[in-house]
Amino acid sequence: MADMLVKLYELPPLSPALAEQQAAGVAVRRAMPAEREFVLKWVADNFEAHWLGECTVAFARQPVSCFIAVEAGQVVGFACHDATCRNFFGPTGVSPSHRGRGIGKALLLACLHGMAAQGYAYAIIGGVGPVEFYARTVGAIEIPDSTPGIYGGLLEAPASN
Known about the structure:
The protein is an alpha+beta fold. The protein has one domain (4-150): Aminopeptidase, CATH 3.40.630.30. It has helices spanning 15-23, 36-46, 49-60, 103-117, 131-138, and strands at 4-7, 26-30, 66-71, 74-81, 88-94, 122-125, 141-142. A 7-stranded mixed β-sheet has the order 2-3-4-5-6-1-7, with helices on both faces. Strand 5, helix 4 and strand 6 form a beta-alpha-beta unit.
C-alpha cells in the first residue's frame, strides 16, 4: 500500500463536517489524557495490534495527537497523527456499525486541521488502503515508490499451533 501526501494549507473546512456529526449525535474532538485507557481498550478490541501501539504513542504527545468520535458516551471512531513517524496521519478507524455516516471524514479533517494548527504544511498518510477516499476528501496524491514505506518488515503475531 502506497503513502499519500496532503497539502494542509488547502484543506476543506472542518466546521461543516463537525456540525453534520453533532446533528447526528456524534462529537468529534481531540481525546483527553484521562480517556487514554478507554480509547486504547476500544482500539485493542476493534483493530489490529499495530494500531494499538500507534495510538498509545499518540496519547504520549502534547497535545494528544489522537482524535475520537463519541456517541452516547462511547468511542465509535479514532484518528491519530505523529504516531509511527512525525508528520504522518494514521492510524484511523470507525466501528463497523458506524461506517458510511461521515464519521471517518470528520475524524480525518479534525486530525489534519490539528496538524496544520501545529505548523505542518503537509501530511503523509502512511500505507493507505482507501486511496480514492483520501484523494476525493482532502486532495491527497500518491507518493511514487512508497510501497512498502516505513511499514515494511513490521513484526507479525506468531502463528498459533
